Amino acid sequence: MTATTRAREARKINTPAHASATGIRLDIEGLRAIAVLAVLVYHLRPEWLPGGFAGVDMFFVISGFLITSHLMREAESRGTVSLRTFYARRIMRLIPAATVVLVTTVIGVFLFAPRLLWSQIGIDVIGAATYSLNWILANRSVDYLAEGSAASPVQHFWSLAVEEQFYLIWPLLIVLAIVFSARVARNKRTTASALAGAVLVLSLAFAIQQSIVADVSAYFVTTTRLWELAAGALVALTIDRVRLTLPAVVRSILVTLGIAMVAWCLFFIDDSFWPSALTVIPVVGICFVILAGGNEQPSVGERALSAKPLVWIGGISYAVYLWHWPLIVVAGYKWDSPPLAVSIGIPFLSVGLAWATSRVVESPLRFNPWFKARTRRSFAFGFGAMLFSVVLGASLVLAGPGDALRPPSGAVAVGAEAIPLPIDPQAETSAQWLQGVTWALPSPMDAAEDVPVIYADGCQQDTVSSEPISCTYGDVDSDTTMVVVGDSKAAQWMPALIAIAEQSGMRLVTFFKSSCAFADAPIERNGDPYPSCAEWNARVVEQITTLRPGLVVTSQVKGLAYSASGEDQRTRADRMRDGLLRTWGVLRSLGSKLAVIGDTPQVGSNVFECVAENAQNLDACSYDRRRAESDSALPTQEAAVTALGGRIVVAGAASAELTDGTDGSVALIDMNDVVCPSTEQCPAIVGNTLIYRTGSHITATYVTSATPLLSEALAVVDALPSRHK
User: Fold this and answer.
1) CA atoms of 526 and 557, how far apart (whole Å)
2) pTM confidence score
């Protein structure tokens, strides 16, 4: 059989009886539908489909396959590839619908999003329009200053950016492969296959390496995703030969196996780290379905994928992907947790808008003869549409509240030093603290950046790894050691604790992990078990045992243990208390003193966003102290300290508020009169200092101003060396 005959037979196999009239493989359209629906469900309710994010990986493989198939058909029929025509087609396929969604999203942001978010979203719109958003998000994901970055309504454009960057480079490499194969008298597909294989191996190796070191930016960067597109390309380059070699029964088995692999990933993996070695499973599964599917006598799996509803959704999957995420995020501006009816309605609205976009915008422009007649018209249209979106993004940046409560040059805020001592929270109201405030440090625009130095130093472990990270501050040569351990609520006190360690001549060693309470209790994260937290805790206890510190300082945000059995809050609080007692018991056996800084009030929202929106009415940003304290971990911490017979001191009142505990080695430091010098409504600003940054975290500036109060409280319970008393 000649090469020409083999190619002709392969094309017969690759154009099955159940293909559409245009030769499109219906099972692949079904795969696209599964991919977009998986992503949509995951974004709406992750608990419904924990591995739904793998739909993006499916898209990458399918895109690599389709684009490479197109390029090789042109190369084999014409001897080369027209790059101008290729890029013109890509422009008309992608940019019209993307522009409509970006414009609509910007309007939605102007109407519904907090103004404080406009600048960040505007930058993201510019990145989405220029297909560079993945690199912006990668930089933000490892930027300790971006801790408070909210989800962007155009964040999903990162995957489109990866694809477009691949589309920009891959045709050039195919052309080079064609030229090279002609010079060395090698088959075009063989040369291109070797190229795709090299890209696959190198990119996959890099992705796995990045997963090992837990580099969170790996999710977004092109270099860790190229292998998935290359896998699809390799299928396109080898499919003719493989399909001629494999018997029909083997192809049917591969399709079934591939569908099972994809289904397993969608239902049973989680997003603890991705991409990783596990990503191979859905990628290989999709490759099996594409490689072995499209048969004259389709298997049950192929028939299911070729069902008309799936094929129809697959045909508009690009537009569905574009629309669903902005709708979800904009709904989040109105509801902290969208009602079930909204969650159910968003998919239908996404599909409806996608159909309208495809019917009214995408198809009429994409297949317009006027654009096809001159490729430069497509380039002009694409440039103009991108420029328009960039201008809209820039308008969001410029319209943001850049000067809200911006302090004058050289301004110094006194913060907690403005509170009269001893602190009497009944003597002041929230409104009194906010009278005449025209500026604040940090300004609400800078609040998310006002963090302890430990973030810049890389001293907090992420949610993936269980390996402890330690950093040393204070008098590093001292024989007396203070260990600070816990989650970000412990880390927030570092500006004061570093100063106290330096003043008292102590070496300060840190152990921090995101969202991980220092307790021998089951911890949850986003409603799910948090196994790396338990592993981290065990390892940290071992390291503290080796250090044998004189003082251990801890705090936490979680007052309830994880429960999968629907236990009430009281039971979960008791389980967390028992876990604290077990961990603290180990510290007591070492002879270490333990100072527990009480959890600060859980506000339930970002106060700095409210301040930016209500600079002329700051009282609107006050919050109820009793509710916020009851939602915090403070009640559980107090119960654990009391159970041990420890002492409790209220900062600012010093010994006047010191309880008579039976165990002098354990104490709870209650800083909440400092954070909220009012018994009812808590002010957002004290002493021209913004108290909260993201969530319930205190700004580093305000913590610094509270250093004398924390130091005095520690001295009262004999937690510091005698030279400091």
Assistant:
1) 13
2) 0.75
